Fold Glycosyl transferase family 2.
Amino acid sequence: MQTSKVSILVAVYNAEKYLGKCLDSLVSQTYGNIEILCIDDGSNDSSADILNRYALTDDRIKVLTLSKNSGLANARNEGLKVASGQYITMLDSDDWFSDDSIEKAVEAIESEPDADASLFRLMQYYEETGKMVEYKNKTDKKCISGEEAFVLSLDWSIHGLYMLRAEIHKKYLFDNSTLLYSDENATRLHYLHSRKVVMSEGKYFYRRHVESMTNSCSIRRFDILAANYSLLQLLKKEEREGSLTDADKIFDLYENIRWLNVVGAYWYYFNNKQHFTVEEQKEILSKISSALETIDARRIRLALKFKIGYYPFKNFRLFLLSENIYFHLRKLLGR
């Protein structure tokens, strides 16, 4: 019996090219007890017409229309306000589910006592080549604790596409501190506050294409630094509330990840500087400098500190000097 209702949220912004395939995968689900909440985030293409046409043919589809584009996090949070299912999951408007995806996710979560989240199998579809590659989580376990899932998610040793109990989703909303990477912090908190996380056989097909902002030379790529800092503040709050059982270990791990992201951000800037205006270059360097100031160098692993280009200099000029020397050497060596 399909007694548990599942809410599927689809945030939509100018998605006319792929929206039909996304919606077709939802209305054909073998699990029928679903509601499909489509949030039109101020689209100015034919997305709204497509949504309304599908809603006329399937009463499980509800369309919410926002007056202006406000970003993925806000659109999803608006959907969460009206979601009525016991479980909630997200589907991007250019992605799609296998027909049995929701059924498999519900089976997995309800077959394991105290499970709160169920991970889909993530299938990465490369649009330019038609190649399909499965994302390999770095755990062979079929069931892990929420805190274990949280730790694995800090460097994405497990992905962040899942179905979750509604009460956790609604308590920990999507972080709107940045337009890009807005879902990553919420995902990690969802894992942290789950008792158990199980793996399901339901497939999520993730479309990877060059039109994506994360694949283009956009200044928004550097939002990851602000998003990382935002999560750090959230983790400090979790520590104060006693939600972290091994806070020191978690902060050590995350600070090293934040530091690697600072170095990675400068590496990206170093290689793509010519694509940014002078004003954008100043803004990018300011973002990197601000992130550097927040790094707790005491938590950086010794192995990193003694690696060329990875010593956490607090002085920004020394940081730039060190990174420029390191990256020029890498280019000379063809690495």
Notes: Residues 217-332 form one domain.
